[in-house]
Amino acid sequence: MKSFSFLYLLAAGALSYYLNFFLPEINSKEIIYWANRLYWLFILPVFIYLIHGYSKEAFPFVGITSLFLLLSFALPPFFVPAAYYQLGTLYPVALEWAFWGYFTFFASYYIFYFIRLFAIWPFRPMYIFDLKRDPQCKIIGYFFLILYVLNDYTPLSAIAHLSTYAFYVYLSLFFFLINRKSKFLNSYDRLIFYFFLSKEYLTRAFDGLLSAIAIFTLFLVVIFWYTSQKRVDFKLIRIGALVSLFLFVYIIFSPIKHYFRKEVWYSGKEYTLSERATLIYDLYQKRNLSQKNPSQEQVYENHFLWRYSYQASALSHVLLKTPSQVPFWKGSSYIFFSKLIPRFIWADKPTENMGYKFGTTYGIISADNKSTSINTPIIVEMYINFGFPGIVIGMFLLAIFYMLVNAYFNNIQMSDYAKIISISMIFNLISHESNFSLTFGNLPLLIISFYAIEGVLFGGMYKKQYSKQ
Question: For a disulfide at 309, which of 29, 76, 135, 331, Cβ 3.0-4.6 Å?
Fold first, then answer.
C-alpha cells in the first residue's frame, strides 16, 4: 500500500493544481487561502492510513471521515460562490475557525494514535464464530435481518436504534459468505439477500436524503473491498460501478430534491416506491422544461458540491449571530443521560429534536414548522455552546474519543466476525453533519444491545452446538 500512498499524494497535488490554476476565481483570496489549507489537512489522514494504518486497521475509519470533511469544507469554495451557499453567505472566518478546529482534532488524534499511554485491547465478542466453517453464521445473519424487518413493519420504538446496525451486520455477513462461496448458502439465501439489498438501496434512493444513500454506498464499497477475494483490478471495477450508480442517482435527484421532499414528506400522502419513482421522473421532466434558461443561482445550486456546502454555511451563519443576537447555549444541547437509557425502560424519555431547536433559534425555519429538522454539525454545536474555546477543547476531546473508538473497534487483528460487528457499529460515525448526541448517542446502546443479544441467543446456540461434539 505504500506505493499507492505516493500515487495518492500525486493525484491530490494534481487536483490542487487544477483547482487553483484552471478554475475561474469565484471567491475572495482569503476564502481560497483557507480552503487550500483545509484541503491538505483533510488529504493527509488517508495518506497516513496508506503508509501506516493499513497494516493495523480493518478499514480507514478516520481517513473516510476526513474525505467527508473535504467535501464539506475544502472543495465547495472552488465551485460555489460564497453568496450562494446553502444558509447564506460564507465568510472567511468560518473556514479559518473550521481549519483550526479540525487541525486540533487531527493533530491530537495522531499524537495519541502514535504515542499510546496505555494498551487498548480490541473489540472481542463473547462468542467467536468461524465465518468460513460455522453454519450458525447464517442463522446469526437472519436474526439481524429479522430485527431490521421488525423495525420497518412494527411500531417497536425500543429497537429503533438497532435498525441500520442490524441491516449492516446482515449485509456484511452475507457478503462475506457469498464472496467466500460458503457451502451453507443456497439459491434462496442469495435471492433473499439481493432482494433486501435492492430494497434498501431503492428505499434510500427514493427517501429524499442524499446523505443516506451516500453513506450506504460507501459502506457497500468498504464491505465489498474487505470481503472480496478477487484481484485488486476486479475490486476497483465493482467499486467503480457502485460509485457510478450513486452519481447517477445524485445527478438525477439533486436538482429536484426540494420539490420531492415537499411532496413526499409534507403532503401527508404515503407514497410507494413505484409512486416515488414516477414522481421523480415527472419532476425531472418539469425541471428540464422550466430551466432552459436557468438563473446563475440555479446553476450553482444544481452543482454536485452545493449540497456539501451546508456545514461551512451553517458555521458561518452562527458566527454571524452568536453571541451578538443569540447567546451561547452553555452546553444545553448536549444530552447524554437520556440517550443511554432504552425507550422500553424509559417510555417517555425526551426525543431528539436538536434540529428543530437549531433551525428555529437561528431563523432558518419558522417556529410553527414542526415537520422540518435542520442538521446541526458537530463543529457548529461546539461553537454555539462555548464559542471558539468550545471548538478547540471540543475537538481535542473528540480526537481522544476517535482514538479510543478506532483502537477498540477497528483493529485488523480481530476475527472476521468481530470486524463485521464492529465496522457495522461505528460506520455511521464518519459523518459530522449532525449534532453530537444524534451522531454518537446510539453507540453505547448498540454495544449493550449486542452483548445482550449474544448472551441470550448466540450463547445458547454456541453451547448447544459444542455440547453435541
Answer: 76
